[in-house]
Amino acid sequence: MPRLTELVELTRHETEVGRIMQICNACRYCEGFCGVFPAMTRRIEFERGDIHFLANLCHNCGACLHACQYAPPHEFAVNVPQAMAQVRGETYQHYAWPAGFGALYRRNGMTVAVALAAGFALFLALAVWQGGSMWRAPNGGNFYAVFAHGWLVALFGAVFGWSVLALTIGVTRFWADSWRQLSDGSPRPQPGQSQALLAPAGEAAARALSLTYLDGGHGDGCPEADDRSTLWRRRWHHATFWGFMLCFASTSVATIYHYAFGWVAPYPLTSLPVLLGTVGGIGLVVGPLGLAWLSFQRHPAHGDQAQRPMDRAFLLLLLLISVTGLALMAWRDTSAMTALLVIHLGTVMALFATLPYGKFAHAPFRLAALFKHALERRLPDRLRLGSD
Fold first, then answer.
1. How big, in percent rounded to 5, are the helix, strand and coil portions of the chain?
2. What is the pLDDT of residues 284-326, one digit of tens each?
3. Each residue of 48-99: pLDDT tens digit?
4. φ and ψ at residue 229, rounded to 5 degrees
5. How far is CA 186 from CA 31, 43, 47, 179, 380, in A?
6. Omega cis (within 30) before 266
7. How far, CA to CA in Å, does 173 sit from each of 176, 177, 352?
8. N or C: which end of the chain has fewer CB within 10 A?
9. CA torsion sign, 30 to 31 to 33 to 38?
10. C-alpha angle with apex 379: 376 to 383, nearest 5 degrees?
């Protein structure tokens, strides 16, 4: 029985991706560059779900732009990285939860600034209220003498829980729209069939962790300022990601220490939470600095210029968190500890509050797209027009 297609009016950027994919589907020169082009060959028409899936599968490498014979100034004006980036911005807005918060993406720089100001003001007020001064006698690095442990758990738990909920709902809605069109109506594995989902989930995770599609399709990396390939964007991404994960591991280990063993902070400099946090903090300095440098070097035709402020605001937040965290560790037994703690916790709170409405959102959306692509590759292709 033929599938009835819901008619949805596409936006200007979605229409542009559909137009470009029609041209690319006829050309196929870039089929081996990344996952976008093999996924494209499974489709003849590109509906909204398909377009947003392909846009989030794109890693904005830029290699296809420099290989394309139809790129500007050709009259076809094919620019896959830019068109995909513009749709990704719409993905984050369209699937944001609550729906009205999608507007925060369009004013992300202002959103981050307001979140930072609110975070600083909150912890400054708490510090003055509880102790009366920002400069206190050294207390051996005891953060909980400044802010009670229960206060911190309640505040950060509530904000982080909200962000996780908002991201989960947004990605679930994105997945539902993509799932409807999976492999052009081919049989789909059901959620209860865990064996059918295990292998594609592993493949998606491996590709995400290794950043496979930032190799330019040939292993030499992506073009940045010109058509020369470099692997530095992958390296800076790895430094940022693993730095973030080590900091998360540090917090997790400290939580286990506190609740399972009753070992309360501050911990010695040679303890596992401090070592993990220090190495992770260094990664979160090196990675964002490298990515920011590449952002200013990158050719204007790569990606969406309108989203650069959002990208840089996210990198600035990560950099502020890591620098203030390392400074706090270095000077925790001085009178400057309270001031450093206020700044550090304010930046962390700003990050948590803006996680669903900023650059961080690209991570779960891309992982969902990688998972769908891995599923598709294991299903029958009715069109049989590609080689994946």
1. 70, 0, 30
2. 999 999 999 999 999 888 888 888 888 888 999 899 999 999 9
3. 989 999 999 999 999 999 999 999 999 999 999 999 999 999 999 999 998 8
4. -85, 145
5. 22, 12, 16, 11, 6
6. yes
7. 5, 6, 21
8. N
9. positive
10. 90
* 230 pLDDT more than 50: yes
State the chain's maximal CA–CA distance in angstroms: 77
Q: At what angle do helices 308-330 and 272-297 cross, to 10 degrees?
A: 150
Say how far apart CA 385 and CA 325 lie, in whole Å. Answer: 53
User: In the structure encoding, which two tokens stand for residue 363, read together?
Assistant: 């991570």
Residue type, 84: M
CA distance 241 to 53: 23
Residue 32 carries which side chain, given as an amino acid letter? G
- Report which secondary-structure segment, H or E, holds 112: helix 108-131
Whether residue 343 contacts residue 323, with contact meaning beta carbons closer than 8 Å, is answered with no
Token digits of residue 215 = 């190799």
The whole-model pTM stands at 0.89
Token duo for residue 126: 């708490």
Cα 79 to the center of its chain, rounded Å: 22
Q: Is 262 left (phi over 0), alpha (psi -120 to 50) or beta?
A: left
Collapsing DSSP states into helix, strand and coil, what is residue 129? Answer: helix
CB atoms inside a 10 Å sphere around CB 41: 18
**Which residues pair with residue 222 across a beta bridge?**
230
CA distance 235 to 211: 9
Q: Which residue has the tokens 């899936």?
A: 53
Contacts of 348 by beta carbon, 8 Å cutoff, 6+ apart: 119, 156, 321
